[in-house]
Design goal:
- Helix 1 crosses helix 7, helix 2 runs parallel beside helix 3 and helix 3 packs parallel to helix 4.
- The protein has one domain: Rossmann fold.
- The protein has a seven-stranded parallel beta sheet with strand order 3-2-1-4-5-6-7, with helices on both faces.
- It contains seven helices and seven strands, in the order E-H-E-E-H-E-H-E-H-E-H-H-H-E.
- It is of the alpha/beta class and 250 residues long.
- The two termini are 32 Å apart.
C-alpha cells in the first residue's frame, strides 16, 4: 500500500465501528475527508455515518452481527473498533448481567472482530482499538466493569499485534481520557448521582486531575487514530497510546 503522502488514504478501504457518534463518527468523517472508502457500523437507532460512507446496522456483540459486518466490508485495509457501552454503577451494585453485557460488547466483540477480519485485511494494513485510560486506573468506582473491559482491549491489541506482524499488519490501542461524547455525559450524570454531587461539580473535579486542564473533542482523538493507521506510524505495533492530556504518564 504505497502512497505518496502518509495522510492520503485515497484508494484504501476502512471499517469503523461505533460510527453513529462520539469518536467513531469523528474517525469516519476524517477518513472520508482524506479519501478513504469507509464502512461505518453501529447498532440500530444510532446516527448514520456521513453520506459518503457505507452504513451497516449490526449488533457486534453477536456472531451474526460480526459476520454481517464482515460480509458487507469485504477486503479492506483498516479496521477501527470504536464501539462500546458503559453502565455506571457503584461497585457494590454491579450485577452479573452488567458484567456479561459490558464484557460482551467492549471486549469479546473486539477479540472476535480482530479474528474475523484477519483474512479480510490486506497485508500492510492496520487495526486501531479504542481502549481507555480506565484500563490503567480504577479511580472511577462506578466503572469497575468498564475498566476491566478496557484492560482486556489493551491486551487483545498486543495479542493480535504479534499474530499479524508477519503480514505487516499493525495493531495498536488508543487510550482516550476525558472526551466530549454522549457516553461521557451519561457517566457524569450517573456518577454524580451516586456520589451526591452535580455533573458540573464532578466534571470540574476531574479536570483538575488533567495536567493540560481540558477535555478533548472527538475530532482531536480521530487525528490520533488516523495517524496510527497511516504509514507515519509504520514502526508502531502492540502499543498503547494514551491521548489523555497527561492524566496518565506511563
Amino acid at each position: 500500500m504505497s502512497r505518496t503522502a502518509p495522510y492520503d488514504f485515497t484508494g484504501t478501504r476502512a471499517v469503523v465501528t461505533g460510527s453513529g457518534g462520539g469518536i467513531g463518527a469523528a474517525v469516519v468523517d476524517l477518513l472520508v475527508a482524506r479519501g478513504a472508502e469507509v464502512v461505518g457500523a453501529d447498532v440500530a437507532g444510532a446516527r448514520r455515518p456521513p453520506a459518503a460512507a457505507e452504513a451497516v446496522v449490526a449488533d457486534l456483540a453477536t456472531s451474526e452481527g460480526r459476520d454481517a459486518l464482515a460480509a458487507s466490508a469485504g477486503p479492506c485495509d483498516y479496521l477501527v473498533l470504536a464501539h462500546g457501552i458503559v453502565r455506571p454503577k457503584p461497585i457494590t451494585e454491579t450485577s452479573e448481567d452488567d458484567w456479561d453485557a459490558i464484557l460482551g460488547v467492549n471486549a469479546k466483540s473486539f477479540y472476535f472482530l480482530c479474528q474475523r477480519f484477519g483474512p479480510l485485511l490486506r497485508d500492510g494494513g492496520a487495526i486501531v482499538l479504542l481502549s481507555s485510560v480506565s484500563a490503567r486506573s480504577a479511580a472511577s468506582q462506578e466503572q469497575s466493569v468498564y475498566c476491566a473491559s478496557k484492560a482486556a482491549v489493551s491486551s487483545i491489541a498486543r495479542s493480535f499485534a504479534y499474530a499479524y506482524a508477519p503480514r505487516g499488519i499493525r495493531v495498536n490501542a488508543v487510550l482516550p481520557g476525558i472526551v466530549d461524547t454522549p457516553m461521557q455525559e451519561a457517566f457524569l450524570a450517573a456518577a454524580a448521582a451516586s456520589r451526591g454531587t452535580t455533573p458540573d461539580a464532578l466534571h470540574e473535579a476531574r479536570l483538575r486531575l488533567v495536567p493540560l486542564g481540558r477535555t478533548s473533542p472527538p475530532a482531536e482523538l480521530a487525528e490520533t487514530v488516523v495517524w496510527l493507521l497511516s504509514p507515519a506510524a509504520g514502526y508502531l505495533t502492540g502499543q498503547q497510546i494514551a491521548a489523555d492530556g497527561g492524566l496518565t504518564m506511563f
